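Assess this one:
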Amino acid sequence: MRPAARLTLLLLRRGGDTDRGALLLPVAAFGVVTALMLTVLGGARFFFTIRGPMAETYQSLAALAVILLVIPLLTLCGSAARLSARRRDEHLSTLRLLGAPTSTVTSMTVLESTLLAAAGTLAGVLGHLLLAPLVGLVSFHDSRLGAGNVLLGVPGTVLCVVALVVMAAVSSLVGLRTVVVSPLGVRTRQDAPRMSLVRVVAILLAVGLGLVAGDQLGDAQDIVGLVIGLVATFGVTMAVLNTLGPWVLRTIARRQARTASGPKSAERLLAARTVLDSPKAAWRQVSGVSLTSFVAVFAGVGLALSNGMAGTGPMAREDAIMLVDLRTGILLTLVISFVTVAASVAVNQSADILDRRDLYVSLDRMGMPRSRVDTARRRAVLSPLRVVSLGSALVAALLIAPLSGIALLTDPLSGLVIAAALAAGIGIVWLSLLATAPLLTRVTGSTVRTAD
């Protein structure tokens, strides 16, 4: 353990500005995840202190909001643990080729991931403390939440931090197998990840079961039972989307690589090969928008439902308060979802540039204009983004249709919210691509090359 610790600290200390930037990315990602996770869980805890006839409804809807937000945050957490994995895998594979034992490589992996995750989660706790007064200004149950009701508390905070750090360690170990078994394949980048057809069939069966369960839930009368069923169904389906996504992107990229032609064939081929090089990394670029598209469908239907209820005439004071809280909760869920997307996209795209810096430098030295390299980079993200966002929205619509009915799903307000959310998600990705372009310039060098 002691040699592994010394080697880990040596690798963390030594390295250029690019390597240091690669180390800061997972720290930043874990900071964002921790701050948002603690804020979401702390806010949800408030609803379980409400008493009265509407308490169960508030608590059930809070549980639904938590599952819709926590799954994307856990996805971002898993991505954060694998950020700059290529840099780490290359270092570890070199050590394996030099004769380092498996125990040393394993210890180094766990130690590095744990240190970075711990630093990020501690920063996230500070972020949670700063966010609490701001979120506390939001009104629920006819009064402001207050910072005290948003703070999760010491036991919950410690438990959440430990869980995130453990998840980081486990995620890093999952990707360690190829380094141990085939270090030369990792070093020469001959380890393109694959997804078996059996897993695809299993995933499609899970989606089918989700649709059947959603149809059965449509007959439920108890709000608690309905929401519990929704939480289970939606949680499984969102996890399925996260698993199926890389396979979908690989299939699309294969077709694009075969059909690349025309004046921009070089950019198209490079974009397709970028996705095929690591479908999982490509999925991490767009997974945030996929999950936000999923959430947007439920938000649109929820707002359409609340709008319809408001137009039915006079209602009791508690019902009116509940209606206002429903709208506030939906909008707050969307806002947090977009913040998650922005953080996920910015961090993952920065990590992608740093992980592929050797490729970008080689293309630059071969004389490929940097503008064309950047075009290929943007195309590798935006091309699958449209399919992923629309596909996720379609799956969500299929799940919620038995519960809401076609009328709410096709309501103009619902359609407007869904369209606006999809446009906002794609816009966030596009802006993030523009924002990370200077990093590409810095990685490839200060001299701008032009084609002969």
Summary: Residues 15 and 239 are 36 Å apart (CA to CA).
